[in-house]
Write a structure and sequence with these properties.
This protein is an alpha+beta fold. The protein is built from 16 helices and seven strands. Helix 16 links the parallel strand 6 and strand 7.
Length: about 425
Amino acid sequence: MRQLRLTAPAVARDRLDDLLGRHDAHAVRIWDLDDDATCVELSLTNRDIGEFLDDVDELGDVTITMAPQSVLTLVPGRQQAPQDLVDVEPLSPHEVFLAGLQSVGSWTGFLGYAAVAGAVVWIGMQLNSVFLLIAAMLIAPFAGPAMNAALATATGDRRLLGRTLVRYGAAIAVVVGVVAALHALLGTDLPTNTMADTANVSAVAVLLPLVAGAAGALNLMQAERSSLVSGAATGVLVAAALAPPAGLVGMALVIGEWAMVGSGAFLLALQLLGLNLSGALLFRLYGLRPGSARYGRGTSGVSWTALAASVLGLVALVTFQLSSSPTLQRATVQTEVASQITELVVEHPEADLIEVDARFTRADIPGQDTLLAVVHVQPTGDTDLDQLEQRLGAELSAEMTERHDVVALVTVTAIPRP
């Protein structure tokens, strides 16, 4: 439930009592400020806030203050008190929309957090430290613009959408700029393992922003006492889609790894569109539509245009990705190659599989995508080890090169049986 304080003209006292009764509001106290104004503190269920705020206009000159926290309302002597406490309904679209407007706050703190996040991203990627990348995701201020963009798309609010896109661009530019500056001053000329891992895009990369956007919108719509996941956790999920690619772009620009720059830019565009689409659709599912908020901001034309742009952009990026194998599907190709080599070796009559490792190399060889696979086997009989290594390596190299349009370099190491 939400607690509100309302001030209305004293002459509207009877209409105020009727309004409280219609919306089953629990009046904590009512008092007269003077001969001209009456004040009331009341608690109201989440589902009734929207209609209540619309109906207060009938009272005349009214001011309202609403605390953005859940409250527990206890009415002594009522047997249904436990039922009154179980208010796990989604928040009112009015409240979510107003909270989104309020969150577009100071630029100083926003850009400061973006700069700090960029520094932590660079340290994490330079040291190949996963926990530092997680720390950067906690700091990075991407979740606010992401959810506000989805909110603006759902409600068709052109002003909020424009301001949010500017903040989006500013945050990404600051992160990329800080990472690039630090890498130019303190970094090396070789890509790190974390850079390579981030640049290796999966064919299902689009699922992360779709899930993150839905999770962020769901978290904002849930009442505090019904949410099982903290806002910080969903913020990390949103930042996980954006912080590493932004760091990758900054570092790769400095060392001239243009393929990695392309992968990072592709990921950023994919994440931004995916977050916006899924978040906006979930907001609309919960009732956030053009004109749904108290102040009537937003138009259907802007909302549908923004949704259509997100869908078309996402389809275009995914189509481009699927037609650019293996450049933008390296993570998926690595997994498939390891799986296929495993199947082939298991079926081979002369060798028993021990281990397979397949990955794309960072070697900058023009005109080819180089995939290195290291295979460890044991001979099944008295086969010569050198001959087995050469024969099996050549077979696997030819098969993987043909299947995946890569230059597959397969090294087989035959270990004698004990």
